[in-house]
Amino acid sequence: xxxxxxxxxxxxxxxxxxxxxxxxxxxxxxxxxxxxxxxxxxxxxxxxxxxxxxxxxxxxxxxxxxxxxxxxxxxxxxxxxxxxxxxxxxxxxxxxxxxxxxxxxxxxxxxxxxxxxxxxxxxxxxxxxxxxxxxxxxxxxxxxxxxxxxxxxxxxxxxxxxxxxxxxxxxxxxxxxxxxxxxxxxxxxxxxxxxxxxxxxxxxxxxxxxxxxxxxxxxxxxxxxxxxxxxxxxxxxxxxxxxxxxxxxxxxxxxxxxxxxxxxx
Amino acid sequence: xxxxxxxxxxxxxxxxxxxxxxxxxxxxxxxxxxxxxxxxxxxxxxxxxxxxxxxxxxxxxxxxxxxxxxxxxxxxxxxxxxxxxxxxxxxxxxxxxxxxxxxxxx
Lengths: 265, 106
Fold this sequence. Notes:
heterodimer; A: 265 residues; mainly alpha; Cytochrome Bc1 Complex, Chain D, domain 2; 2 domains; three-stranded mixed sheet; two-stranded antiparallel sheet; 13 helices; 47% helix; B: 106 residues; mainly beta; five-stranded mixed sheet; three-stranded antiparallel sheet; 8 strands; elongated
């Protein structure tokens, strides 16, 4: 896939042409009003890679996640499946609702943290480190069950102040380049940054298999990558700041379909 | 991490050209990268892939450091007889990843 990178700029042109044609024709599930998934910025090659459930490398993590779902761990002698049964029914729609407000902790909780809480409280098993292969595998497996469903996070009620905090973070200038998320992904989305087209920065496809990383990564890894790219110190993955931001960014892409595991550049 | 994934048609007509797809989870460390201390990370790639069809080698590939992580390979062969296809990937540490698939030729 390193070869893909060389063809990237050509691919982007092709994708733009394809987009132009597509926008005139039938409606795409990847576009909701003025919101467009990162899928629409991909080259045709990468779109095919994502659509093919065999070739999509993200499915390697799904398979591991399927095993972990059944695996009995911890002193309580149970597994994810012990409580939740068949993930295809019990986990359908879950990915669309996270992050959500958690009354127990009095703040937001995302899918990674929810899984680790289940492990701690129900399974009496140790938490998985953030971005570990095991945790990524499980969230990818859980997210896959919601494929195609529209993102639908709640931002009212108790979630409201955290949503507002996420919005502030999104619009706050940071780093040596003095850029906020909104500068690139709102004001200049669709325009070029060197050889690349800036996407809207939607997270409906996460966790993603990213060619730049040659591996799978979570939303927070992407946030940290973006922060580092504007030469700002990133927050730690799983920090409250990033979970708030995750809620705001999820809401920005409300209605877009869950694509996990998506393929991105 | 995960088992190698292969996709072989379960049935084929005799003489039919069939497409075989394979995917394996592997870091494919090039040997050119350095860690945070400036030390070279040793090369750790899959250098040989082979596919045997009822014991006869029908496809072989030598890979080099430019092959990406989690390598995907698709190739074609001719369905000659019913039997087993065996796939092997060998990496620099000598680990052999292997899997098999059945095909019925009618």
